[in-house]
């Protein structure tokens, strides 16, 4: 295919001009980043429709206001003004778990008449979600969205956001469809009919070799999209582990503690001291600003260039940048200990990764559970609510999921993205960055920890001096305690050996 480079001028943003876009999952991590990217880099885009449900007593319109209140939108609000952004976004009250998406007839007509591009990002990303809930949202919700897409009169692309970790029996995942673990239609019908308790009792048998409900239901949803490709223009995006922004619009921004950010905070606070993990292994990570830029470029190629042969895209990074699990933790501990300390550190950052489960269980008993019990007892005695034991229960539950991924290895072919890099010009490469050039790993992790300090932990910069002083105190506490413990062990071992020797002589 011959591609006109347009004299080095951007062709991606103009492709979105006056096109109406529907986004599900806009209140989520990836969804927020996608909305911000489109509003900032494609200002002439038509209306952005956001399918939003009421949640925790907040109406969809209030949740839209919460989205724009996020620090992620400060840059684009400064460029274009809040009123302009809100006027360009239309909230559609609905719920992907409900029949007909719980959309009113008027809103459905609006979507089917106007929308030409759909990004279906809504999903539960909880690995321990019950199978019934995961099927209803991840699989049946996708089916309902496909049904809606089939009614759209101007549809140019239905983009389904899957995951590169949904076909875990494939150690090298290619950009092609794979057979689902079961017939998605039959699974949907069975789950609709059975009570949740019954489904829970059958979950392990239904999942088979699949480690969790997330991977299982995303694989089923992919099969529905592949099936629909004969009827509608559809693509599948398979991002890997989506992590905080690299640079745009805020370095290190995130709104959750999933993935490596949670590990960095846990290790930096001195709470996580041991992990059962192949320390030399690595995961595939993708900064969220890279993910949404890639989605925009892929959309331009599919819609603007009419390149419908390429309809499965791997949004991954490990072919270029490999950071081991140990590398993540060690970098995080060094940054927190030496440059950007966190407040309220319980112990000086330390600990190691264990290659066997029994080593980890032993270390966790002494360095997680015993300290948690003792500290909670002290908190209770001083009239405070015990918290550390509950935190370690959550950590242990998270480790159950993490250990599967940390002790297995997958690689991903991303030939399509490599191809797209060859057909975008210099301006587009900057505006919609989809390569790893210029990424400095140490700088990136520093930005992640700094941003997590601000946006997740709500720890302001004026507390850093006190945090550094506290970190120095914890360093001495750590050294003194280790000296006493090891000294005591040496003393009692020596005493025991002396007694044995004395008894053998006399």
TrEMBL record:
<keyword id="KW-0443">Lipid metabolism</keyword>
<dbReference type="InterPro" id="IPR033640">
    <property type="entry name" value="FAR_C"/>
</dbReference>
<dbReference type="InterPro" id="IPR013120">
    <property type="entry name" value="FAR_NAD-bd"/>
</dbReference>
<keyword id="KW-0472">Membrane</keyword>
<comment type="similarity">
    <text>Belongs to the fatty acyl-CoA reductase family.</text>
</comment>
<dbReference type="GO" id="GO:0005777">
    <property type="term" value="C:peroxisome"/>
</dbReference>
<dbReference type="InterPro" id="IPR036291">
    <property type="entry name" value="NAD(P)-bd_dom_sf"/>
</dbReference>
<feature type="transmembrane region" description="Helical">
    <location>
        <begin position="484"/>
        <end position="505"/>
    </location>
</feature>
<dbReference type="GO" id="GO:0035336">
    <property type="term" value="P:long-chain fatty-acyl-CoA metabolic process"/>
</dbReference>
<protein>
    <recommendedName>
        <fullName>Fatty acyl-CoA reductase</fullName>
        <ecNumber>1.2.1.84</ecNumber>
    </recommendedName>
</protein>
<feature type="domain" description="Fatty acyl-CoA reductase C-terminal">
    <location>
        <begin position="367"/>
        <end position="459"/>
    </location>
</feature>
<dbReference type="Pfam" id="PF03015">
    <property type="entry name" value="Sterile"/>
</dbReference>
<keyword id="KW-0444">Lipid biosynthesis</keyword>
<feature type="domain" description="Thioester reductase (TE)">
    <location>
        <begin position="23"/>
        <end position="295"/>
    </location>
</feature>
<keyword id="KW-0521">NADP</keyword>
<dbReference type="GO" id="GO:0016020">
    <property type="term" value="C:membrane"/>
</dbReference>
<keyword id="KW-1133">Transmembrane helix</keyword>
<dbReference type="Pfam" id="PF07993">
    <property type="entry name" value="NAD_binding_4"/>
</dbReference>
<dbReference type="GO" id="GO:0080019">
    <property type="term" value="F:alcohol-forming very long-chain fatty acyl-CoA reductase activity"/>
</dbReference>
<keyword id="KW-0812">Transmembrane</keyword>
<dbReference type="InterPro" id="IPR026055">
    <property type="entry name" value="FAR"/>
</dbReference>
<keyword id="KW-0560">Oxidoreductase</keyword>
<comment type="function">
    <text>Catalyzes the reduction of fatty acyl-CoA to fatty alcohols.</text>
</comment>
<dbReference type="GO" id="GO:0102965">
    <property type="term" value="F:alcohol-forming long-chain fatty acyl-CoA reductase activity"/>
</dbReference>
<feature type="transmembrane region" description="Helical">
    <location>
        <begin position="362"/>
        <end position="384"/>
    </location>
</feature>
């Amino acid at each position: 295919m011959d591609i006109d480079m347009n004299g080095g001028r951007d062709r991606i943003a103009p492709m979105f001009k006056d096109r109406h876009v529907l986004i599900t999952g806009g209140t989520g991590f990836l969804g927020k980043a996608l909305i911000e990217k489109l509003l900032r880099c494609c200002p002439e885009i038509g209306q952005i429709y956001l399918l939003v449900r009421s949640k925790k007593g907040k109406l969809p319109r209030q949740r839209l206001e919460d989205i724009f209140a996020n620090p992620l939108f400060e840059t684009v609000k400064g460029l274009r003004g809040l009123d302009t952004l809100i006027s360009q976004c239309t909230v559609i009250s609905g719920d992907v778990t409900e029949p007909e998406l719980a959309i009113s007839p008027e809103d459905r007509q609006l979507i089917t008449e106007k929308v030409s591009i759909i990004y279906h990002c809504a999903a539960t990303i909880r690995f321990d979600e019950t199978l019934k809930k995961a099927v209803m949202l991840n699989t049946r919700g996708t089916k309902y969205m496909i049904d809606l897409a089939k009614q759209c009169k101007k549809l140019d692309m239905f983009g389904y956001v899957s995951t590169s970790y949904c076909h875990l029996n494939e150690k090298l995942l290619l950009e092609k469809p794979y057979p689902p673990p079961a017939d998605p239609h039959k699974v949907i019908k069975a789950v609709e009919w059975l009570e949740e308790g019954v489904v829970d009792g059958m979950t392990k048998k239904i999942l088979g070799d699949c480690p969790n409900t997330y991977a299982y239901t995303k694989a089923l949803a992919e099969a529905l999209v592949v099936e629909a490709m004969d009827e509608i223009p559809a693509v599948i995006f398979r991002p890997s582990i989506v992590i905080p922004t690299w640079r745009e619009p805020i370095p290190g921004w995130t709104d959750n503690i999933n993935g490596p950010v949670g590990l960095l905070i846990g290790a930096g606070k001195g709470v996580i001291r041991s992990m059962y993990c192949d320390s030399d292994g690595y995961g595939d990570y993708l900064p969220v600003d890279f993910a949404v830029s890639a989605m925009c470029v892929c959309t331009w190629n599919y819609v603007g260039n009419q390149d419908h042969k390429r309809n499965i895209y791997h949004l991954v990074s490990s072919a270029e940048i490999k950071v081991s699990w140990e590398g993540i933790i060690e970098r995080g501990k060094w940054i927190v200990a030496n440059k950007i300390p966190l407040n309220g550190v319980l112990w000086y950052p330390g600990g190691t990764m264990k290659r066997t489960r029994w080593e980890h269980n032993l270390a966790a008993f002494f360095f997680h559970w015993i300290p948690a019990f003792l500290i909670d007892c002290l908190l209770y005695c001083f009239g405070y609510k015990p918290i550390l034991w509950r935190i370690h229960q959550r950590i242990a539950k998270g480790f159950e999921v993490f250990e599967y991924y940390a002790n297995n290895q997958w690689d991903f072919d991303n030939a399509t993205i490599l191809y797209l890099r060859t057909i975008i010009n210099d301006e587009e490469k900057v505006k919609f960055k989809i390569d790893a050039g210029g990424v400095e790993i140490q700088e990136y992790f520093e930005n992640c920890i700094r941003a997590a300090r601000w946006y997740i932990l709500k720890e302001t910069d004026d507390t850093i001096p006190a945090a550094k002083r506290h970190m120095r105190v914890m360093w001495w506490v750590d050294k003194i305690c280790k000296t006493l413990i090891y000294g005591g062990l040496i003393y009692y071992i020596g005493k025991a050996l002396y007694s044995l020797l004395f008894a053998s002589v006399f």
